Amino acid sequence: MSTTFIFLLVIAFIAWYLSYSATRLDRLHHRVETSWANLDALLQRRAAIALEIARSEASDPAAALLLTHAAHQARDASVRERSSAETGLTGALGILLADVDHVTGDNERALISELRELTEKIKMAIAIHIDAVNRTQLVRKKPLIRLFRLAGTAPAPVIYEFESDAI
């Protein structure tokens, strides 16, 4: 075999590896985006249920005011304010759920049951999102990925503070 053929073979392998790595990184970024979209939809649904609970007879007027304020903040929060807003809603819901023994209406019980089911889904979505972010960050740290700038202009994925809270 000639050295030219071996050289071309090595170049072809490096090109294939870089292409494979870029494709994998693109898939990981897509996974982060879809996991965040799923988590965001669940969080928006949680805020909507919190508003429904605040309007129902399941909460006293003071708790309803606190819950309404926290739910509106969570729904309307910008990216920078999202963590504190979601943490605030979690705290408000925690206060409400600690005192649900007095709830008598079927509608209120259904809302609280739906909220508990949604909370479990949110915990699962957070775990999936954190895993996707961690894997993407791990691949982005590889020297070849950084050297050849295979991440392109995609922003580095982040984990929000509220995701580490106990929702």
Question: What are the SSEs and their pairings?
Answer:
Elements: H1 3-55, H2 61-76, H3 82-98, H4 106-140, H5 143-147
Helix pairs in contact: 1-2, 1-4, 2-3
Labels describing this entry:
single chain, 167 residues, mainly alpha, de novo design (two linked rop proteins), 5 helices, rod-shaped
Bin the helical content. Answer: over 70%
Taking pLDDT < 50 over at least 5 consecutive residues as the criterion, the unreliable ranges are none
The CATH class assignment is Mainly Alpha
Return the structural class: mainly alpha
Strand runs, count:
0
Secondary-structure element string: HHHHH
User: What about the largest sheet?
Assistant: none
Nearest-angstrom radius of gyration? Answer: 23 Å
Per the principal axes of the C-alpha atoms, what is the gross shape? rod-shaped
| Known CATH architecture | Up-down Bundle
N-to-C terminal Cα separation, in Å?
63 Å
| Residue-averaged pLDDT | 92
- Strand percentage lies at under 5%
- CATH topology (fold) name: de novo design (two linked rop proteins)
- Structurally, the number of domains stands at 1
The tally of helices reads: 5
